[in-house]
């Protein structure tokens, strides 16, 4: 019997395949139950019109009890969206990925939340402590203890 | 009136666990069955085991703990029922209490360690200070002012004594300050009152046969010989030291002035700090100035004995083995110089006392030296001169004075004591004075040796030539000679 995380992820993947992703989100790869990649864009009026970002989910064996590690992919072709809660290395300061995570959320729910976080952005700017954080940030954003300040998602 | 039946979890056709997303239809129960629970006010249901796992994991993380016992969708609180007897709660409380006590114990033992190390250092420094004072003042004055019994020590000795080794070490640091090593000795002790030993009397009286200085003369404003210790400590010694340093610097520059780059290296060394020049010259001789360590390696030079800064800058370029060797070398070099610094500082009182007795021995052959040293025969056993002769306050002159006059008289007396030291200092054999002079002589001698060493080193560097050889071992045919016929 596969682990709980694998069984739940298989179900989530099945759902995505059957019902499709929410609008503006596409599954790029889900070859295993460790890492999934999505493309995400904000539809309609927003500061990010025409920009497509790549979102990476990493799961550990305790998913969904433990939250997935979610970050934007930064490579030669793409950067992380410029947003007050997104660092230039792709790490996201969002409470649902940390203290507010709960198993009732799912991969596509997280995608939608992040999409609306981008859509509601008013100023395109990096977090104030971006340089300091990026210099010392761990590889896995879950190892960071973010301080969520109020107006997050 | 029949009450409306309220459905429960068992009435659902399909149960979907919101945590593991597994489904169970009512007509196809799982085997073995797993318990389901509906813990809140909304429609979410879950396997009891899944939910307990979630609650437990949330409670283990402090930042997530507030959300552990409520529904993520409707926020209604979960009610946990458990077998939580009073004994378990007691044990939990005891456990918490014990960890709190454990923290206190940790802090306390750390404090104890720090305090005992500090106390140890304090005792060590104080003991050393007493030793230094004995060396410097001579046993006679030491017994009068301090003695071997700490119970009789004046209060200020507990501040002053531990400062002595520190100020000795400070005085050797390469700062530009003009701290003389004798400051703590010469500032606090000249005004210190003698302690009354059990078997001795503090002499007093208008004309005591034992006292060699007339108390009235004690108040004399004119300078006395040897010079008052406080003025020496505060002004004369620092000024002399400063002037001497400048002179020595000029002389060194003049002596070592040369056109070779080596000479300039030495100049820089000397101008920087004259405390450890021997060592530094060796350091400089091995390492070319401004050559990065990588290049030095190419040239096959040992990378060791670099300054610490240079090491840090170039560590990344140097191969790991070399970096380790270089670091070891650096530690050895700095360790040597640190030991030398502290050891050299702490031996100052001994040297000073040794040089003082040397001067005393020399003075037996020279009247002038005897005058300069102001040697006095030791006081009779058991006689202790007072700090201030009380007789100054008796007698006719004192009783006839007005209050104002008395105040100014006492003020004048206090000032005299502050500047010139107590009667005790005036009466005792001024060992401290010849020791100070001796220390000065020693410093000069040391600097002379040091200069000689520098000068010889410089001469050696300048006189270096590569020895010329003839073409004895070479076939003459291979050489393009001006006049080959002569050699064939």
UniProtKB/TrEMBL annotation, chain A:
Taxonomic source organism: Pisolithus tinctorius Marx 270
Keyword list, A-Z: Ubl conjugation pathway
UniProt-listed SUPFAM superfamilies: UBC-like
Gene3D superfamilies attached to this UniProt entry: Ubiquitin Conjugating Enzyme (3.10.110.10)
Record-linked SMART domains: UBCc
Protein name from the UniProt record: UBC core domain-containing protein
Signal peptide: none
InterPro entries: Ub_conjugating_enzyme, UBC, UBQ-conjugating_enzyme/RWD
Segments forming domain UBC core: 4-153
Key word Protease present: no
From TrEMBL, chain B:
Pfam families according to UniProt: RINGv
Swiss-Prot/TrEMBL keywords: Membrane, Metal-binding, Transmembrane, Transmembrane helix, Zinc, Zinc-finger
Ranges for region Disordered: 294-313
Boundaries of every RING-CH-type domain copy: 9-81
PANTHER family referenced in this protein's UniProt entry, alphabetically: E3 UBIQUITIN-PROTEIN LIGASE MARCH5 (PTHR46283)
Subcellular location field: Membrane
Principal cellular location given in the protein's record: membrane
A GO term, aspect molecular function: zinc ion binding
TM segment ranges: 104-133
A GO-annotated cellular component: membrane
Membrane-protein topology: Multi-pass membrane protein
Protein name: RING-CH-type domain-containing protein
Domain of life: Eukaryota
SMART domains for the chain: RINGv
